[in-house]
Amino acid sequence: MDISGASAIVTGGASGIGAAAARQLAAKGAHVVVADLQAEKGEALAKEIGGVFVSVDVTDTEQIKAAVDKSLELGPLRALVNSAGIGSAQRTIGRDGEYDSAFNLDNYKKVIAINLIGTFDCIRLAATAMSRGEETATGEKGAIVSMASVAAFDGQIGQVAYSSSKGGVVGMTLPVARDLAAAKIRVNTVAPGLIDTPIYGEGEDSEKFKAHLGQSVLFPNRLGSPDELASMVIELITNSYMNAEVVRVDGGIRMPPK
């Protein structure tokens, strides 16, 4: 699918994997809406790639609609990349056996609200706009790529909220693809492994920690780069025969319990 001259939305697009995807979409000729809460980074990236920044909290339906409407001002909406998400670490029960020490339910709900419900809300609204568009030369109206995680399959101790949310993204991929097939919209998911993003911090200690983590990757023994993830996102958007798939991009890692 040719996305040159079309518009694309990238949630969580101001940094990390989202920013790499936004840059590669722009390099393909797309007009990119960088949808994020990080205004300074988002505006700087949008200026760099000739796109537009829109402040979006993916738990706010009206803000998502505003991003979709802005994308339609730039060109036909052909691509959505769901990269917004948060993590959380806590064990299901505490060591003292007290109810109040169990996993904080509000935190669990927040992770689900952002990573899972937010992803679906973006999909249903962007797909609605895509469905009203004209078909491309390849007979499509759009393509959607969501970001899951290897934690959807190999969730570690303390990752119950994150793994639940990403497992939900994996689980929705096929049924949403089936729902949207009639509208000629493809849906795929990427499940990243250990990726070198700002979450690991900066400096000598950070580099040592990342090098240690990289040793658990089958091959190559390092963290992946955001560009390596983004290249798969672009493939899933532009390859017209990729649909309803969940693709691990993880160097062959299988996460241990902890």
Automatic annotation (TrEMBL):
It comes from the Bacteria. It holds the Pfam family adh_short. Signal peptide: none annotated. PROSITE patterns: ADH_SHORT. Belongs to the short-chain dehydrogenases/reductases (SDR) family. Keywords: Oxidoreductase. GO terms for molecular function: oxidoreductase activity. This is SDR family oxidoreductase. PANTHER family: 17-BETA-HYDROXYSTEROID DEHYDROGENASE 14-RELATED, SHORT-CHAIN DEHYDROGENASE/REDUCTASE.
